[in-house]
Amino acid sequence: MNARLRRLTAITLSLMLLSAGCGSDEATTPTTTAAPATTAAPTTTAAPATTAAPATTAAPEGACIGLVTDVGEVDDKSFNQSAWEGVQAAGAAAGASVDYIETQAAKDYATNIGLFADSGCDIVVTVGFALGEATGIAAGEYPDVDFIGVDQWQGEAIANVAGLLFPEDQAGYLAGALAASLSTSGVIAEVLGTDLVPPVVAFGEGFVNGAKHIDPSITVIKTYHPGGLDVAFTDPEWGATTARQALDQGADVVFGAGGKTGNGAIIEVAGEAGAFCIGVDTDQWTTVPEAHPCLVSSSMKMIVDGVSDLIGQSLAGSMPAGNYYGGVALAPFHDHADSVPAEVQDMLVALKADLESGAIPTCVWVTDAPGCEAPAETSDTKAAFIYVGPTGDAGWTWAHDQGRQYAEAETGVETAFVESVPEGTADFGNYARQFIEDGFNVIVGTSFGYMDDMLALADEYPDVVFEHVSGYKANDTNFGNTFGRMYEPRYLSGMVAGSATTSNLIGYVAAFPIPEVIRGINAFALGVQETNPDAVVEVAWTSTWFDPVVEGDSAQALLDKGADVIAMHQDSTAAGDKAEAAGARWVSYNSDMSAFAPNAFLTAPVWNWGPRYVDIIESAAAGTYTPGYYWGSMADGIVDLAPIADDVDADEVAAVEARKAEIIAGTFHPFSGPINDQAGNVMVAAGETMDDGSMLGMGLFVEGVVGATGNEPDDFWPEPVLGGTLRIGLEAETDGLNPAVNRFAVSAYQMGTAVYDYLVVTSDDPCGCVYIPSLAESWTHSDDYATWDFKIREGVTFHDGSPLTAEAVLYALKMQLNDPTVGIAVRALFAADDPETEAFEPAELLDEMTIRYHAKRPHVDFPGNFTGQLGNVPSLAYMMAATDDPTLNQAPVGTGPFMFDSRVQDSMTRFVRNPDYWGDTAYLDAVEFYIYTDGELAAGAMAAGDIDVMGTSNTNAILTLRALDGIELYETDDYEESFAMANSSRPPFDDIRARKALTYAFPRDDYVEFIGAGVLRAADQASTPESIYYNPDVVQEHDMPDLATPLVAEYCADVPEMCTDGRINAEYQYSGPSVIQDQIFDLLTEGWSDHFNFTKDLLPQDDHITHAILGMWDFLTWRQFGSINPDGHILWTECQSVGALSLNWPRYCDEERDALMFEARASDDREANVELWKEWAVSINESYTYLFQTHTMWTNAYGTKVKNVCGYVLPDGSTPLCHVNSANPSWAHMWIEE
Question: Is residue 957 in some structural domain?
Answer without folding.
Answer: no
